[in-house]
Amino acid sequence: MEHPLRRALPLIVFAGLCFASLDATAKFLVADHGLLLVVWARYVGQMLVSTPIAWQRGGSGFWRTRHPGVQLIRSMCLVSATLCFFGGLRFLPLAEGTAIAFLAPMFAILFSGPLLGEKPTRARWLSAIGGFAGILFLVRPGTAIFHPATALLVMAAISNAFYQLLTRKVPGDTPHTTLFYSGLVGSIVLTAAVAASDGFHFSLSARETLLFALLGIFAGLGHFCLIGAFLRAPASLVAPFTYLHMIWATVYGYVVFAHLPDGLSAVGMAIIVASGVALVLHERRR
């Protein structure tokens, strides 16, 4: 019998590469362009990539949802997470910023009780404590991550935690429907925001035009592959491999931005990843 990871693993690895590529491209662009414009391009591009895929996989009724209110709030949480994350990356290194964003599952543990009525287990609390301990290694005086913009990355992780928890509140919708609304809401809200700020008056070089287009391509393909991986294998098998995103982020940070985490920062990043992976492995045994 074929192991489920045989088909899921290439998808989750490629998804991590797409998301790291998205983050690196966004970090490069926000240095010279408005944050709203960069995030807008990411969502509109995702819509253009993911909508035909959702239509092909889910049929003409792919857009119908049983939970419109939850889909709206969930998608707004994702928009908030993206704005905060890209805003933080304007000032902070890519690898360390990505590590802080991976605190989202730990925040999800803290909020799962009030939102979903779940009682976190001892292992989940230990994982959360481990994640915050890793942050202490990263956010310390004298490091590049010791910066007010770090608060934006923490807000991104919190918003992403609510996004993850609310995803579990739309059980009647297909993954393709959920992916469609993730892009649709962001596109509408950000189009209005950019128009209100008169942000559509800009000029781009050929290279910048390509980079803006790549934002949507990376986002659409990344989410498509992530969904595909979780459809082909149990979440407990797939989830540990999402942390490969950290490797891609570190490589991009060095190759594109000439930055490598120092020793203690690397330890903090390792603690955050280990806390997340250990929790997933524990949950799988349960």
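the 2nd protein, sequnce then structure:
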Amino acid sequence: MRRAARLCPALLLAACGGSPANAPASAPELGALGHPPVVTARDGGASVSVRGRTLWLFDDTLMTVTGADGFSYRSATAGWADGASLSLDEPLDAAGAPFQLLPYTDAELAYNRAGGPNERFALWPGSAVEGQSGTNVGAFIFFGYLKVHPGALDYEGLGAGVATLAPGSTVATRVPTLLFAPPVPGFSVGAVVADGFVHLYACDPSGTLDSDCRVARAPAADPTTTAAWTVWDGATWNTDLTQGAPVLHGAPGDLSVSWNDHFGAYLAVHSAIFSDDVVFHTAPRPEGPWSDAAPLFVGAHHAGTTNYAAKEHPELATDGGRGLFVTYAHPLGGFDEDVRVATPTLP
């Protein structure tokens, strides 16, 4: 499952249990997002509203069958729902397996067939924004690109890219050239559109109990070329993409960012590190300044594991932005895992 920057793998059961003292109150739970019968586990869970329907994006997806392409796993899958429904529409291949959302190149396929699943390329969708109406681009999907190596948490970050998806489809088209490659951070999570720009975040661990998030932006109409992007350097938007300044702390690799009408501010939601707690920050602009983390709720706990990858879905918020729709990856032990839905209320 997706592990590179989340710090707390669902399949690595040691050292990840429990919540700290003074945990926030639990929130009403709606259950788990639906999945095809052959799927036993998946994580991620970013979403975006596309032409009135909700597009759901998932990272590593484990299955009980071998798909028509010869793989028993996917590194990216997708489904569609009507509004806040937990029931998803997902086309399946002849074996009943969902399709790989972000197709591999021939070279990546060969590499994965030779060494997967322990040694493989992975393409993890981090977030997405809706494409402009009147075009055949339903969504721009931003993804992390990496190699998974044998052993716990052994990942090699290769950058981040973008793909386009037509409305109703679950197989995207990758832009061949990566948007970001080392030493540039892999901006792919927390996509939010503000003032005509799509903003993306990269949240890299700076220590076991902290992480630094940086932000980049590009014109929302076409964010598919590296030259279109700039980073916030603490004072201005800089064309040198290595000069991003930390703007938010504590998000373990994933988060959501959205405009929230209730607060009249931008809202960031993410999991706390090594905890089932979910927290939030606010800011007047996507680049900040961001407030310190405040407790939102504590997710359901499963013994020996910890939740991760919490994020809000602003297209499904209620009560003028006070009632939130939040998902988090919920390990169930072994190779089982759900993406659960909670509905906390902002203060």
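The chain has one domain: 29-342. Confidence is low (pLDDT under 50) at residues 1-23.
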